[in-house]
Amino acid sequence: MEGRPPEAETGREAGAGPAAGPSCQIDVRATKIRGLAGLPIYHLFVIYKDPSGSPYFFRGGPSGRGGPGGYGSIKCDHGAYTPGTVDWEPGAPSTTVMSGPAACGKDTSFIRELSRIDAASIPYQPTGPNSNSVARTILNKTGVPEDKPVMIAPGWGQIL
Amino acid sequence: MARVEWKRLRAAEEVRARLLAELPPGSDASAIRSFATAQRLECSDPVGGVIRCSAPARGRWPLVSAKWLIECRLEDGRLVDIAVREGLTGP
Lengths: 160, 91
Hints:
The complex is a heterodimer of chains A (160) and B (91).
Chain A lengths: L23 E9 L9 E8 L5 E8 L11 E7 L13 E7 L5 H15 L10 H10 L20
Antiparallel strand pairs in A: 1-2, 1-5, 2-3, 3-4
Chain B lengths: L11 H11 L6 H10 L3 E2 L6 E12 L2 E12 L2 E12 L2
Antiparallel strand pairs in B: 1-2, 2-3, 3-4
């Protein structure tokens, strides 16, 4: 079963009471990989919403140069999640893995983990290690519950 | 304006040159929006002086899709430069 599409990218849930302090949210989202007929395979990435509701993405992918198969190493990226960014897909399946004050500040930890993974120059493989391994790892290493909105995400089992 | 066949362009520098031919420095945000609409690009609003857009690129592997990631840098509402890089997405 796939996760629900995310709520609007900004703004709080309808009917939410007054906030008791800063509140943030962390989602894991999935986009479908094109190129394999009939087989639903997904790319996972992480979205962090800051206290104002602004979304930021954290993701990995192939660098595209060198390495086994020519995929290169795992290259990580992060930034404001807007149209024109690599994983932009507002209706993507999504699952919220953490929300509330405890989620605030996890973005800094995600950036630290992405830098560590980049520096390790890990060869990318479609079956893993890959972008799904990056998503799982940044959750695992920062104390965020590890869950995903879709079933088939090769590499999810690998912690980098 | 002829439709750009983004997937036929092989290098980021080639994409940048094609964009600058249509959007020379000094173009304003409305010109960028018009171009983006005509070429069916997905673009952000200006944020911090940057309009981000993406265009389809030719994938090299069955499980990895590619996009051209375009950053139009504005100063005082006018285009000063365009940066392009390839963004790859796989499992």
